[in-house]
Design goal:
By secondary structure, this protein is an alpha+beta fold. It contains 13 helices and ten strands. The radius of gyration is 26 Å and the shape is globular. InterPro entries: Catalase, Catalase_3, Catalase_AS, Catalase_clade1/3, Catalase_core, Catalase_haem_BS, Catalase_immune_responsive, Catalase_sf.
């Protein structure tokens, strides 16, 4: 039979044409199936391997491509090339996610939202991996596995465990600030487009003269902040568990591109030792009255992924991915994430995951001596020199890109931050809420704490009371706990 040259031929992974994709090769019409049907075994074997391990946290997510545009001159603070000129645009990819739920979790669940950004700069990829909240539940990475265990499923019942959640929080008073945000209206944002984003951690910027400052990032939604009430979120979780995923995709498809104005707070290095809160403690914010928001740019998402798995599921973000002009701070939580995120992706997508198109930098990605490994998907460096130092013209280090030093001191020991005021900022936040917002906050907390053991309730009420007496009293009243017992 003459082959139609215009016909698109179905082929095996090795390129052989497939003659029949509807029927297995069998011994007669009844069978059995023959082992020689290599197309059948190839399809089944690949199907068994189509899923990679889901992220331990941030498993459910949606993403989009876009750009970051510089709108204000920041060169007096940083030499980062992608921030060097007003009007400069850098391509980027953003992923939004819930934190605690599995991949099939509902978008409307009460949970912080991941706000992960990858900037494809001329100096390599810069990843800013934050949340839609400026703070977090804990401030030391050594507590992170335990915290996440409380958010997952009970080892015996395989159900969510309110006792574990509130037991941990009640024994970790640093969590109160984030708990207050989580159970406010901000815990159930309407969509990924209608929420702010934050770098959360403190980072260091350094300019061309080697002068450094501490910096925090803020992304303010241009769509306006919109949230669901608890009742609306619970209903939507059952009716349309993918509502935010769909909303992001459809808004971009119809040309309604989500955008955020980008700001930073700048702190002189010397202020870190005299500020009333430790500026590296991720459970605290810098007061904007002390360090005002400074506009620097605009983020726009204008293109949907062509394939969810290739671009969203396989995307790998790590705060360790920085560029010259941007560096880390002593933030203990950040320091732990510098290892944990990259290691998680090495487990999920493999040691060569950086070579995947979504994760590959626009700079030369093979300018190093990392070779071999599972799923090496380029020429593996060809016949180029594979060690360093060498005299054969291989890539060499560039001392001019050495990060600016800063002084550290202290005794080597396991120790907490010096400043332990866990109540002022949550109290300030509570008092900023309107009466209707306070009522919803109390209702949300009471509803979540009702299944919890009495002794845990009492411990947690005391934290609310220390933040603001009214805060504690209203939670106690809602739980039916006598005021004397609460104290």
């Amino acid at each position: 039979m003459t082959e139609n040259k215009n016909k698109k031929i179905l082929r095996t992974a090795q390129g052989a044409p497939v003659s029949d994709n509807q029927n297995s090769v069998t011994a007669g019409s009844r069978g059995p199936v023959l082992m020689q049907d290599f197309h059948l075994t190839e399809k089944l074997a690949h199907f068994n391997r189509e899923r990679i391990p889901e992220r331990v946290v941030h498993a459910k997510g949606a993403g989009a491509h876009g750009y970051f545009e510089v709108t204000n001159d920041v060169t007096k603070w940083t030499k980062a090339k992608f921030l060097s000129n007003v009007g400069k645009r850098t391509p980027m990819f953003a992923r939004f996610s819930t934190v605690a739920g599995e991949k099939g979790a509902a978008d409307a669940e009460r949970d912080p939202r991941g706000f992960a950004l990858k900037f494809y700069t001329e100096d390599g990829n810069y990843d800013l991996v934050g949340n839609n909240t400026p703070v977090f539940f804990i401030r030391d990475a050594i507590k992170f596995p335990d915290f996440i265990h409380t958010q997952k499923r009970h080892p015996a019942t395989n159900c969510k465990d309110p006792n574990a959640i509130w037991d941990f929080w009640s024994l970790s008073p640093e969590s109160l600030h984030q708990v207050t945000i989580l159970f406010s209206d901000r815990g159930t944002p309407k969509t990924n487009r209608h929420m702010n984003g934050y770098g959360s951690h403190t980072f260091k910027w350094t300019n061309a003269d080697g002068e450094s400052v501490w910096v925090k990032y803020h992304f303010k939604t241009e769509q306006g902040i919109e949230n669901y009430t608890n009742e609306e979120a619970v209903k939507l979780a059952g009716v349309d568990p993918d509502h935010a995923t769909r909303d992001l995709y459809e808004s971009i498809e119809k040309g309604d591109y989500p955008a955020w104005k980008v700001y930073v707070q700048i702190m002189p290095l010397e202020d870190a030792d005299r500020y009333e809160f430790d500026p590296f403690d991720v459970t605290k914010v810098w007061r904007q009255s002390d360090y005002p928001l400074i506009p620097i740019g605009r983020m726009v998402l204008d293109s949907n992924p062509k394939n969810y798995f290739a671009e969203v599921e396989q995307s790998a973000f790590s705060p360790a991915n920085i560029v010259p002009g941007i560096d880390f701070s002593p933030d203990k939580m950040l320091q732990g994430r510098l290892f944990a995120y990259g290691d998680a992706h090495r487990y999920r997508v493999g040691g060569n995951g950086d070579l995947l198109k979504i994760n590959r930098p626009i700079t030369e990605s093979n300018a190093n001596y990392q070779r071999d490994g599972v799923m090496r998907c380029d020429d593996n460096g060809g016949d180029s020199v594979h060690y360093e130092p060498n005299s054969l013209g291989g890539p060499k280090e560039s001392p001019e890109h050495t990060p600016a030093p800063f002084v550290v001191s202290g005794t080597v020991e396991s120790v907490a931050y010096d400043k332990d005021d866990h109540y002022t900022q949550p109290g300030d936040l509570y008092r900023l809420l309107s009466e209707r917002e306070k009522s919803r906050l109390i209702s949300n907390i009471v509803g979540a704490m009702k299944p919890v053991k009495k002794e845990i309730q009492l411990r947690q009420i005391e934290h609310f009371r220390k933040a603001d007496p009214e805060y504690g009293a209203r939670v106690a009243e809602g739980l039916g706990v006598p005021a004397t017992a609460a104290k």
